[in-house]
């Protein structure tokens, strides 16, 4: 009697579910315990440090690009921060550039001009179907390293120089009039904001439309220009100049960084272009017909009807691409750019042999960034998702 | 063969098709269409699918382009001139089979969008007009909802209100009830009947023969891109003259 | 009410051909190339670009290229063209790495068998594709491993994985990724949608963890940590570690694609299957998964393409994949010269492009066929 009860209990869905889960927990726990104990034994046997003590030890290696102070006498911990900042630097530069290029190419894909749309298609097909590493190596080895030396730099205006030591840009140094220039810019920004608010109110009241874009351009360019004329140039530029066999002065972007940024931007822009194209084309044709039937001309239809709907479709995959930029920047190790992976999971791991700790920290960093981006995306979805039937 | 008048036009004509042909590639979709619609007239166009009826009314507001012949809407001849097309669209309203409401805007915003941006109406005024028309189609309480929150019948009535907000002189309906569940067809047809009673010039493509009988001044039967028969509704349904009309009616009215 | 205009057709209208203007090339050009001033300028700019670029490309790749040479001397002298002689000289190394020359027939055999099985699996009209799937996913891996690695029993000399390289490694890594990602990914996706909280959280944790970190870190982790987590006796082979990393990595991404497909399937499908009395495995295997997977074919193939491109990263843990083999080949001093690098990279680019683009076109082809079935 009791036996058949047990049997029928096993057929109960909930009992079964509980059993499966208990089994899974046991299996996972066994694996985890097995792995941990093996790791302990192996690490002990090979003399690998078990804790995080290495964080305070002296690193003993140089890094050629550091946003904070660093030298061979700094600690491994400091090296971590240098690497992290370098990774973030690349991300911060690449995201806006890739977005800009991606949107331009995406819009070109939608152009009625057949040649333009086909060229944009060629761009996306080529750069999405070749590995990023290959592209990076190509830009780094086949392009940047083959440039002539500083004495025969490629140059456009004498101010921007390209050679095999990197890209040299003029370095702006603020002078006395910089303050008035900055305030002029600030004032025009405020004026622009005020004007757009006023224009919207005016349209609501009287229906008349004002050319805000045109006015804004005039103000944003005109007012700072006047400030320059009145008080003098706000910046003096330190130009890179030939000194001996090298260039001195100016802002130097090393070839490693130039290759990484350029390669990442070009690669990611191809994906962003496809996202933009797909988002715009997903807006039903009927929407455009309805807008046209109401008398809205093309510009208004695009601005008021197509763009809002397209952006809702574009933003989620777009943020996913931004995340990819951060993750793909780890390929820096192949071109010698000192990012987090190259410094920490590369050099530091090799020197300390503390694989478990180093990898745990590295992955935690990337996970934190991923979670932050996911949270931001969720916020966007919550506020902008289109409301559906509640009834 | 008639030619468009060069000087003054007949002011009683709302829409005039003169020798209109349209091709999709090599497919001859509209063949020598000659049709006049007087002001205040209600025309119902029926026919089997693929007969060109949707193409015909979509030519009236320039959503489709005709390759030969003339279409004169309210005295303005439709050419490829964008300005002319925009002018015509201001005075011609259209209601689509799939509603095509703007999902990212509320019902009220759907209705006020065109008056604000095309007629440059002040916002308050546009909203008053919109609320008046939403009351007329009997769903004023839905004004701040989003289209996806409404039933199909309600959405289509919003679409009618949206078109009416531009104060059109002609209303085009492209199978307005074909995508609706049966219990919601009546509310939309009632709205359209009321519109007709107020004297709106209407061109309606529909399969709803009951509506045609009650509301239409004339029924136009199209098949294979050409107009086959035109008559007043009673003689049309009770006594079809052409062979193809008889065949079609026997298939529809079973 | 106006006077009724009655009309009854007496004679059918003739079917005319369209006016010639609307079907000629000139009209197409007017609409697509010269529709506005901006468009005209753009067209002219691109035409100029093409007229300048095409002859340059042609001369670099064909007319000025060096096709036959024993070493880099000829290429150093003809610097205006590609050095295809370098490629033909290195082709074997690029294909096999350092695999012993007399045993290379084993690699060829494995690759041919794999290709036949894949073609059989992918050809929509092929018969008994279920058999092909069984062979490819279950039998072929064992067959390939035995043949490539060797086995004392069969008299096949063992070839250490250290010697494997080039295209062999690339195809192997990609194949492992593809073969394991689908079943593992399906399991993970089902786990993520499960109502059992432990299963669900375990799946979510795994998927989000793997998707949140760069592939390189997974490779590093597999390479450095796997030997630590396993007892000494089980020390994993150098090739096996990144393969494990690849399998887990691709499974997580595949899980998300499959989950998307499962979610977009209408609830009615689940309900109909349950109403028919199908158990969970039967329901999944016969009704849900076939539909869900076909829904996300473009996403799955996208994943495969990304996977194939990610195989280039295994060089970081010391494996010589195709790209790494090319890098090594380019360092050969006998062939050094300014045209070697562009030639090598272009050839490598074409290699990867062919596979990736080919996969994308195939997916579009399959989608087209399926869409015909779905259109009403």
What's the arrangement of secondary structure elements?
The complex is a heterotrimer of chains A (391), B (254) and C (376).
Chain A: H1 2-11, H2 13-46, H3 76-109, H4 114-128, H5 132-144, E1 154-155, E2 161-163, E3 166-169, E4 171-174, H6 178-206, H7 212-231, E5 235-238, E6 241-243, E7 246-248, E8 251-253, H8 255-282, H9 285-293, H10 298-328, H11 332-335, H12 340-352, H13 355-384
Antiparallel strand pairs in A: 1-2, 2-3, 3-8, 4-5, 6-7
Helix pairs in contact in A: 3-4, 3-8, 3-12, 4-8, 5-8, 6-7, 8-10, 9-10, 10-13, 12-13
Chain B: E1 13-24, E2 27-38, E3 42-46, H1 53-60, E4 68-73, E5 76-77, H2 82-91, E6 92-95, H3 107-117, H4 123-136, H5 152-164, E7 170-174, H6 182-197, E8 201-205, H7 209-215, E9 218-223, E10 226-231, H8 233-238, H9 243-252
Parallel strand pairs in B: 3-8, 3-9, 6-7, 7-8
Antiparallel strand pairs in B: 1-2, 1-4, 4-5, 9-10
Helix pairs in contact in B: 3-4, 3-5, 4-5, 5-6
Chain C: E1 7-8, H1 25-32, H2 37-63, H3 73-77, H4 84-96, H5 104-122, H6 129-149, H7 167-192, H8 197-212, H9 215-229, H10 240-264, H11 267-275, H12 280-295, H13 297-310, H14 322-330, H15 340-374
Helix pairs in contact in C: 4-14, 5-6, 7-8, 7-10, 7-13, 8-10, 9-10, 10-12, 10-13, 11-12, 13-15, 14-15
